[in-house]
Amino acid sequence: GIAMGKKNIRKKRTHVPQVQEIDNSIPKTLVFKRGTVGNTVKELITDVRQVMLPFTAPKLKERKSNTIKDFVHVAGPLGVTHFMIFTSTDLGTYLRAARTPAGPTLTYQVCSYSLVSDVKRIQQRPHSPGAEFKTAPLLVLNGFAGVDKKHVELMKLTWKDMFPSLPVDKVNLENCRRVVMINYDDKTEDIEFRHYLVTSSVAGVNKNIKNVLTRKVSDLSDYNDISDYVLGEAEASESDVEDDTQITTEKTITKSVSAGKTKDGKRRKKQVTQTITNQSKVRLQEIGPRMSLRLLKVEDKLMEGEVHYHRLVQKTSEEIALQKQQKEEQKRLKEQRRKEQEQRIKSKTGEDDDEDSNDGDDEASGSEGEDNIEWYRREVGQEPDEGLFCFLLLAFFLLFVFLLLPFFFFALYLSHYC
After folding, report:
1. How far apart are the C-alpha atoms of 107 and 67, rounded to whole Å?
2. Whole-number percent of the chain with pLDDT over 90
C-alpha cells in the first residue's frame, strides 16, 4: 500500500475575540434618560435608539447614581460624539441634543410624539423589522434653506452631524434602506421628526407577474394556462395605484466572453463591460417614531454655560453682561475653594508627619517629670514608653493616696477624742 502522509492542519484561533478599531469619523450617539420618566417615554427612548442604529447602544442601562460626567468619561474611548437625553417634569417631556465633550446643548420641548407601536396600529400592512437596521439611515433636512437665524442654523448643523455623511459617488443604493426626515416650519418654529422605510420594486410590471418571478404563487390548479392568471387578474389593487416615484438606476458589470482561439488551439477571453438600466418604483413607508419638537434653549457648553438663545426669556445686553459677570465670579470662587481645600489637605498631611518626629517635650511637664524619666532610664536601662510611663505615674499616685488616707483619718479621730 501507499503510505499517506498526514497533512499539517493548523487550527484557527476562532475562540479569541477580535478587537475592532473604532472609526472616529463616524458619529455615534447615546440615547438615555435622566431622572424619573414614564413608561411611554421609556418606550420612546427605545424607539429612538432603533432609529440611530447601528451607531448607538441599543441596550444601554443607566442608573440613578450616574452623572453626566460618567457618560462623558465613557464617550471618549467609545468614540461617542452626541448625547440625546430625555427628561420629564410636571410640565412635559424634554429632549436635549448635546455634542460631546464641550457642547453645545440644544434643549427641545417634545410637544407630541407617537411610538412605533402606534404607527403600526393604524397601518393596514405594517412592516416587520429586518436587515434595514444594519445600515445607517439617510438624513433629509427640509425647510431650513433661506432661514437667516443663528439658532436655526445651529439646529441644522447639529442634526446633520448626528448622522454619517454618505458620498454620492460611492454610496451603494442597496444600503439606503431608511430615511430620517427633519422638517422645519418657519412660522411655528417647530420641527417634525419622521422615520421612513425605503422600499423599491420593478416599474411597469404587473403584480401577478412579480408574484411569478418571486415565486409567491401558492396554487395554480384552478387555471388552464398561465396567461389566465397573468391577464385574468390584472385588476389594480390599492397599492398599485399609488403615486410612487420612479427612478432609473444604472448598474455596470464586467464579464468574460470568448474571443476565439489562439494558434495553439486555446480559447481566448476578453473582458466586456455592460451597463444594465432598470426602472424602479420607490416607496416610503413610515415605521415611526414621530416627534414634534420645539427649540427652547441653546447653551454653549455641555448642559451648562452661557445661554445664546432662549425662546421664553428675552434679556437685554446689560442683563446678559451682568449674568456673564456673575458666572465668572462663581467660577472664580469655585477655583478658590478648590485651592483652599488642597492647601488644607497638604497642611494636614504635613502635621501628621511632624507628629512622628516630635520629642514630646512640653513646658507643662516641669522638672519633676524629667527627673522621673531620668530615674526610669537609670533603673531600668531603657527608654520609657510614654503611655506606660503615664500609667505608672497614675498607679503610684493612687497607691500613695490609699496608704495615706487611713493615717489621716486616724489622726483626726485621736485629735477629736483625746
Report:
1. 18
2. 31
Would you call 243 helix, strand, or coil by DSSP? coil
User: ω before 101 within 30° of 0 (cis)?
Assistant: yes
Which three cell numbers, joined as nine digits, stand for 254? 464586467
- Residue 17 DSSP SS3: coil
pLDDT digits (tens, 9 = 90+) for 40-99: 999 999 999 999 999 999 999 988 888 999 999 999 899 999 999 999 999 999 999 999
Burial status of residue 195 (CB atoms within 10 A of its CB: 0-12, 13-18, 19 or more)? buried
**Cβ atoms within 10 Å of 191's Cβ, excluding its own:** 21
Chain center to CA of 25: 16
What CA–CA distances, in Å, run from 374 to 196, 360, 377, 383, 405? 95, 15, 5, 9, 29
Say if residue 77 is preceded by a cis peptide, omega within 30 of 0.
Answer: no
User: Which of the residue ranges 3-17, 114-128, 274-288, 374-388 has the most confident prediction, judged by mean pLDDT?
Assistant: 114-128
pLDDT for residue 363 is more than 60: no
Contacts of 395 (CB under 8 A, 6+ apart): none
Separation between Cα atoms, residue 395 and residue 344, nearest integer Å: 41
CA separation for the pair 83, 96 (Å, rounded): 8
Q: Rounded to whole angstroms, what are the CA distances from 59 to 30, 47, 200?
A: 10, 12, 31
Picking from 288, 262, 295, 266, the residue whose alpha carbon sits closest to that of residue 111 is 295
DSSP annotation string for 328-351? HHHHHHHHHHHHHHHHHHHHHHHH
Nearest CA to 72 out of 106, 105, 35, 101 is that of 101
pTM for this prediction: 0.63
Query: In 3D, which of 88, 152, 92, 80 has the Cα closest to residue 298?
Result: 152
- Choose among 175, 184, 92: nearest CA to 136: 175
